[in-house]
Specification:
4-stranded mixed beta sheet, 3-stranded antiparallel beta sheet, alpha+beta
Length: 202
């Protein structure tokens, strides 16, 4: 379909400077010519780590959620386990590490279900989201800066909170909606889909 055709890059880059960088990101300021012909500066935040999220769903259709205070937003946030892949670390290894550290869970099965570009007008940050099933418990190992609460909630309750805007974290919202789509379109194992879409229990 013609509507999905892609255009060439309309921006002209005349030079790049790097006014700031730290262990997490750097800022590249591009001297550019805009698509309309005017000259200007376009600054891009270059993230050093791949964002990774993992949605753990047990056989009864329950999700292990993690709650923490998000400093940039000055707001509490309920999320799936998340983190950033270190240099040389695969996304899957990161997902398994974050699942263990934040939720105290080990996944017998881990499958990538979604790739995302985050805030793509200002940053090149990318994300991969995994579905974790066949779960078993282990000790939680949060980092020194992480203070978590934990809640095991049925998938339908989490989905409702996403729909109502009570859960707003982007990886969590995307993961839950993708998992719901998988459940209703037959991409999820039938027994797990039935557990997720049922009423749930206590």
């Amino acid at each position: 379909m013609r509507e999905w055709e892609e255009d060439a890059n309309p921006w002209v880059v005349k030079g790049v400077t790097r006014p700031f960088e730290n262990a997490w990101f750097r800022i590249d300021s591009h001297e550019v010519v805009h698509p309309g012909g005017a000259e200007g500066v376009y600054s891009v935040i270059r993230m050093r780590r791949l964002a990774v999220g993992v949605l753990p769903i047990d056989g009864a259709g329950f999700v292990q959620m993690v709650g923490q205070w998000r400093f940039p937003l000055a707001r509490y946030s309920w999320e799936i386990p998340e983190g950033g892949a270190e240099a040389g670390e695969s996304a899957e290894t990161c997902a398994r590490r974050e699942l263990e550290e934040e939720a105290g869970l080990i996944a017998g099965r881990l499958a990538p279900i979604l790739q995302m570009d985050l805030s793509n007008s200002s940053t090149d940050e990318q994300a991969v989201v995994f579905l974790a099933t066949d779960l078993s418990e282990t000790a939680k190992r949060p980092e020194a800066t992480e203070v978590f609460k934990h809640r095991r909630a049925h998938f339908r309750e989490v989905l409702e909170r996403v729909a109502l805007g009570r859960i707003r974290d982007s990886l969590t919202v995307a993961a839950v909606l993708r998992a719901h789509h998988m459940a209703v379109t037959g991409e999820m194992p039938a027994r797990l889909a039935e557990a997720m879409l049922g009423e749930g229990g206590g």
